[in-house]
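Recall the central idea of this unit: under ordinary conditions, the amino acid sequence of a chain determines the structure it adopts. In this exercise we apply that idea directly, starting from the sequence alone.
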Amino acid sequence: MDAKICGIKDINTLKYIINHNYPAKYIGFIVNYIKSKRYVEFEELKKLISIKKKINFVAVLVSPDNKILEKIKDLNFDFYQLYNVSPKRTKLIKEKYNKKIITALTIESKGDVEKYKKFDSISDIILFDSKGYEKSLGFDHRLLKNVPSSITKMLAGNIQFDDKLDKYSKITDIIDISGSLETSGEKDISKINFFLENIRKIKNEN
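Accordingly, the structure predicted from this sequence is:
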């Protein structure tokens, strides 16, 4: 099981994750969702992701219009994580900008889960998230039990940094975490370290 840490907005935290003995495989940046306290202004975003790295940088985009897609097209992103984007537009974005795609589905019911079928052929990863966006709400993970193992699955929504993460290993390939790594609204290095060490233990056990 791999890790994605989302909502990074300062260089010190970014460098800490990149230089960790067991770094996350993915790091997410909030590119255009201004309501989020983790949103990063464009000029700051450019500085952050200009750093050399061996980690996948992910642009988190909610209903992105053509203007923002053109604005970020030359930035150092490996993946676009798309919320509220139709299958047809997802395909267009993937082909035009030559980026790998994480399709984010917000889950409340079995019907929400089934939407993955419309995206599996055009997405590299399917993210099953809660309806809360930045609020880190939860949902019933048992709803994912019939999603085939051929789908690369990412799981988010009210997962705690100190959870017994092995309970997720049969559900998902990647844990996506953000809010629970924070103290007083800012990323907490000690919590990030605990989480990454936790992921390492699971990898070693498997």
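The radius of gyration is 16 Å.
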